[in-house]
Amino acid sequence: MKTWLGGLMRFSGFLIILVVVVVAADAAQQQPAKESNSPSVAADDGFSYSPLGRRDPFKALIEKKETISKQVNTRPEKIKGPLEKYELAQFRLMAIMIVKGTPRAMVKAPDGRSYTVKVSDYIGMNEGRVKRIETKVIEIDSTGMRVEKSPDRIVVEESGIDSYSGKTIKESRYIVM
Q1: Cα(49)–Cα(114) distance, rounded to whole angstroms?
Q2: Label partner for 42 (CA 20 to 30 A): which of 25, 66, 134, 157?
């Protein structure tokens, strides 16, 4: 009877351990996964993607300074002229002239007024400066055809901030007829 009782005790101990393991495994499956602060996307094959530390692909790489002008404002408002009230795309080139060897250009602002600009003048909302005033270059090729090399335009260098690195960058834009 002792052997039968010992065998029964061993068997009941084995059953108790088996039940504890099964209950623990079932409880682990029913518990929701811990939520982390970073959003992640998990696929069925076990792949998990976390955008933490990566840039947003839908956000522009270069932001104009006007959007963050309160953070980085190098020119006080009281110094800004009438040409710095509008975006560059709103200006139209009306004429290019050379006065005493210095190129100047006449631009029309959205308010209907005309202004004369020269190299190093400020223009546009993003602290743009006139770098060059280019005149049209026309050449005759070997077949006798007239070829335009460059159009009449004003080259303006604007300041911007790279949204990825946060560094200030310079960007060339044009005002054309």
Answers
A1: 55
A2: 25
